Amino acid sequence: MKRQGETNEVADVIAKRRERIAIRKGYVSLLLRLIVVIAAGYVLFTQVFLITQTHGQGMFPALKDGDLAIVFRMQQLYAREDVIAYQANGQRRFGRIVARATDVVTIDESGVLLVNGTPQIGEILYPTYAKDGMEYPYRVPEGTVFVLGDFRTQTEDSRDFGPISLEEVEGKVITILRRRGI
Length: 182
Known about the structure:
By secondary structure, the protein is of the alpha+beta class.
């Protein structure tokens, strides 16, 4: 016959083992959840969104040097006036779409931009002057967009590189986080 003390000791040992097993299961569950969250975050911020810092003043005042831009990579159709991130000459750049495929772009000597014969006036503070290497009126080819920076007198854009292929467009800028002395 077992004594009462031995029975309590066995019950204590069993309770401690159950507690250790429960703690171990909790840690394993936590680790698996962390792995899923990290994998989802990786996919989200490498395939769906792009977070990048802007460089230069080519899109001033919309984007300033050092701002963080959040870019939506899954955008399929781009409209005029969309601000996009794109690759040109091996560098990430930002610009505003002013014309899409089959649109006709004309830049006159007075700095007025015409798209399909309509003057493009809006919030752009700087005149648009033509640069060497491109003749106007210019018809934008299929599968491309014509992109200009907002600081039009100080930027490199489609006037320098030609139209931007949709394959070189990384996505549409959906929000900007302003740098304030960071």
